[in-house]
Design brief:
This protein folds into 2 domains: 4-158, SPOUT methyltransferase, trefoil knot domain (Alpha/beta knot, 3-Layer(aba) Sandwich), CATH 3.40.1280; 175-217, no CATH class. Helix content is 30%, strand content 23%. The protein is elongated, with a radius of gyration of 22 Å. The chain is built from 9 helices and 9 strands. A 5-stranded parallel beta sheet has the order 2-1-6-5-7, sandwiched between helices. A two-stranded antiparallel ribbon has the order 3-4. It is an alpha/beta fold.
Length: 221
């Protein structure tokens, strides 16, 4: 059985504890379809204060994550990869290529993915140029760090690992994102003193699978 391994570098390792231990990702790890390793970048520093950042050359606000502990962390991870395993290192940044399903399908072809979660005002540019293989952004907005992007890309990619979802295809993969309903058949709400019944579309109750298929296809994207 093939297993995909994710390595995440961060200065806040406990951010990942809850999310990785629930739902799909928990089952994926228990089923040995994926494994996730979280690394504290501070563990790869040389000074007693475990310094991971410093002021930017040329002046400017905030602090910048240093290259040395990140380089050492990535080097150690790569040294532990045996055989002809494919590994790719990703830095999350606002300048990166926009993440989408196509990218997730490409990344799932690797045996190991290394995620560098930036913080503060950014990461020393030499990390992007000489340590990471590519930069990825999950959207045109600013976050406090790369931890959430790491989780987004991790889960989106893991969903394409055979066995993770129980069946390979998900709703979005095979049909597009069409509306779904479940019991009760009729649900009553009250707004501004008026009652309103919210009903399931009749076609879904018809048992006519041909018509149901046609109805769903209207929402295909």
């Amino acid at each position: 059985m093939s297993m995909m391994t994710f390595h995440v570098l961060t200065i806040f390792p406990h951010i990942f504890d809850s999310y990785l231990n629930e739902s799909i990702l928990r089952r994926a790890q228990d089923g040995k379809h994926i494994t996730v390793h979280i690394y504290n970048i501070r563990d790869f520093t040389d000074d007693k204060h475990r310094t991971v950042d410093d002021t930017p050359y040329g002046g400017g606000p905030g602090m910048v994550l240093k290259i040395d502990p990140i380089y050492k962390a990535v080097k150690k991870i790569k040294s532990g990869v045996r055989g002809k395993k494919k590994i790719r290192t990703i830095l999350f940044s606002t300048r990166g290529k926009k993440f989408d399903t196509k990218t997730a399908r490409r990344l799932v072809k690797y045996d190991h993915l290394v995620f560098i979660s930036g913080r503060y005002e950014g990461v020393d540019e030499r990390v992007a140029k000489y340590v990471a293989d590519e930069e990825i952004s999950i959207g045109d907005y600013i976050l406090s760090g790369g931890e959430l992007p790491s989780l987004v890309v991790l889960e989106a990619t893991a969903r394409f690992v055979p066995g993770v979802l129980g069946r390979y295809e998900s709703l979005e993969d095979i049909k597009g994102s069409y509306p779904v309903y479940t019991k009760p058949e009729v649900f009553e709400i009250s707004e501004k003193g008026k009652k309103k019944k919210l009903s399931v579309p009749k076609v879904l109750l018809s048992g006519d699978h041909k018509e149901i298929k046609k109805w769903r296809e209207k929402y295909d994207v």
